[in-house]
Design brief:
By secondary structure, this protein is α+β, with helices and mostly antiparallel strands. The protein is built from four helices and four strands, in the order αβαββααβ. The radius of gyration is 15 Å and the shape is globular.
Length: about 110
């Protein structure tokens, strides 16, 4: 089996609350946060931000491995773009980790 066949990305699901008055700050900080992740976080693959209602959001981040995700969490808000994005968050509601199933997995 090759590495690409064995590859099952880790997905981070983070649900959080943003005060309506801070939504602009969150969205303005997003591009810099993603740039910092690409520059500083090994295994970062992709991220999608979803607005659930007026003040709740879901960030869906894909990592190459669970170890890459854990290493990223250990770094915290160590870069300006990441720090600015986190600063716009009023409350963390939940954080979960899962694995994308491979094709043909049942």
């Amino acid at each position: 089996m090759t590495e690409s066949e064995d590859f099952a990305p880790t997905v981070e699901l983070t649900r959080f609350r943003v005060e309506p008055s801070r939504v602009g700050d969150l969205l303005r900080a997003r591009p810099a946060m993603l740039a910092d992740f690409r520059a500083d976080r090994t295994g970062f693959l992709d991220a999608r931000l979803v607005r659930l209602d007026d003040d709740q959001w879901l960030d869906i981040v894909t990592w190459r491995t669970s170890e890459d995700f854990a290493a990223s969490r250990a770094k915290g808000a160590n870069r300006p773009g990441i720090s600015a994005f986190f600063a716009a968050i009023a409350e963390l509601l939940s954080a979960e980790e899962g694995v994308e199933p491979g094709i043909g997995e049942a």
